[in-house]
Every structure is written in C-alpha cells, then in structure tokens.
Amino acid sequence: MPRERAAAAHCLLVALCFVSYGACDVAGGAGSVNALPGGTGSRAAPSFDAATPRNVTALVGKSAYLSCRVRNLGNRTVSWIRHRDLHILTVGGYTYTSDQRFQASHSPQTDDWTLQVKWAQQRDAGVYECQVSTQPVRSFFVTLHVVDCDEIYQRMYSDGVPSARILGGPDLHVDIGSTINLTCLIQFSPEPPAYIFWYHEDEQVISYDSSRGGVSVVTEKGAATTSYLLVQDATPADSGRYSCAPSNAELASVRVHVLNGERPAAMQTGSAGLSDSWVCVVTLLAAVALHTAVLHTQLTS
Rounded to an integer, what distance in angstroms lies between the CA atom of residue 64 and that of residue 118? Predict the structure, then answer.
C-alpha cells in the first residue's frame, strides 16, 4: 500500500509540473516546443509564432525558404539544424556547412529567421529544426518537401495549358512587422514568360512611383518558372489581394491578412477553435483531478 500511494503521489506531481511549466505549449507538431521550463513567469522568454508554416514545398532546382518566427529573442542565437544527419547548417547569420546552398537571413526589423536552400534537390527533403539557444533549448520544426515537376511537365505538355498559381492560398496570414513571402509557380508553358507582374489589389507592386520600399521580386526561369514576392515589415495597409500576372498565362491571386497580434478567424470559431496547448492543459487538469481522487481514496481506505 505505501508503494501504491507513493506512485499515485508521483503521478500527481508530474501532472502538476506539466501544468505549471506550460510544457504543452507546442508549435510545429510532436517535439516542437514553444515554451519550456526556464520561461515561466517571464514575458521576455522567447516563443515561436504558431502561425508559421510547418510544411514547405519546393521544386527541384529552385530555392526553398524555411521560415522561423521568434518573438522576444533577446540576446539568444537562432540556429538551423538538418535532422537527417543532425548537421548544424547556420548559427545566427553564419553558415556552418561546406554546402553553400544553405544560407540564413534575418532583417533586424522583424522576428523572421529564414533558411534558404538554393537549387533544392530531392535529398534535401526532410525535417529542419530552428533552435533557440535557451536553457534548455527551444525548437520549432519545419518539414521540407522537394518535388520534381519535369516528368509531369513532359507528360502534360502536349495538351497542357500554361497556368499560374500562388502556393499556400487562397488565404495567407502574417504578423505585423514580418515579411510577406509569396511564391508564384508558372507551369506547362512552351517557354518561360517574357515578364511577370505582381499586383496588390489593382496597383502594380513594383513601381518606380511607389514610396513603399522594402519590396523585391526574384524570378527563376525554367521548364517551370517561379517568381518570389517579398514585402518586408508588413503593415495592415499591406493586407488585401495579391496577384501574379505572367505574360503567357492567366493571373493567379491570393488574399493576405496582416495580423496585429490577433489569431486568424478560422482558429476562433467555437470550441473547435481551441489551440492544441489549451486542449492539452485541460486534459492535464482532468488528469490532476483524477489522480487526486485516487490518492484520496487510497489514503482513506
């Protein structure tokens, strides 16, 4: 009986520790910790933005961009690690691999730490870890998928119609102050488009008359052409419909929502909108109540 009481008390202690330290605040799926012991009671503790994409798809031979948004970083360092071989790729803005296709970038005005994989190959597919140098470390995981469109292109080219689409649509949510990163893919074209224009609502994004600044476009042409639109330091005025208009295909559009700390509406509808962390906390509270009842029964028997 003493051994059983000790076991019950231990289970209760573990459950209480989980609740008090917030170990259920998870981002990026299993193993991606958003809040760990050491951050309790400190608003300045680093945390990951759960709205950051956890799955990224890139074309073979094109660039892949993996984002990691860290709030309250302070004097900590952000590193990117490839899980396939646990190889440290970058630390801060420095590259720690002989493969120079990997490069980390960060704008001091944002919380974004982006890992660029140039000329992505299928062997680059897998899990990548964005790690913050806290004690213990905090991690956010992103899975990179690399697809080869050449075979599909060759098979469908004879009867395919040139088309454009913006990846990740029809709606994208970004935090205020972060970078809007849009990728337009043009496929099934006998030759690369002569030009690609980007529009915000009905106005051309790249314009010599615009005073916006912080806007850039990178285009990589090939059997499948990819155009990247980057809008730095996003503000609510940057919300709205963005369109990619290649010279040889119908335009494609996506709607961007710049959030000022609020959560997307899709995550706020009814009880189904509860975050995974709250569901986990409620479950642990129920476990605490159950263990308390069991312990009370054993102590009075």
Answer: 7
**Which two three-digit tokens encode residue 46?**
């680093």
pTM over 0.85: no
Alpha-carbon gap, residue 202 to 218, rounded angstroms: 21
* pLDDT (tens digit per residue) in 97-139: 889 899 999 887 888 999 999 999 989 999 999 999 998 999 9
Q: Which residues contact 9 (CB under 8 A, 6 or more apart)?
A: 295
Mode of pairing for the β-strands spanning 94-95 and 102-106: unpaired
Please tell me whether residue 277 adopts helix, strand or coil conformation.
Answer: helix
Nearest Cα neighbor of 175 from 111, 102, 243, 220 is: 111
Instruction: Answer yes or no: are the C-beta atoms of 99 and 84 closer than 8 Å.
Output: no
* Residue among 28, 44, 26 nearest 36 (CA): 26
d(CA 245, CA 171): 18
118: tokens are 């140039």
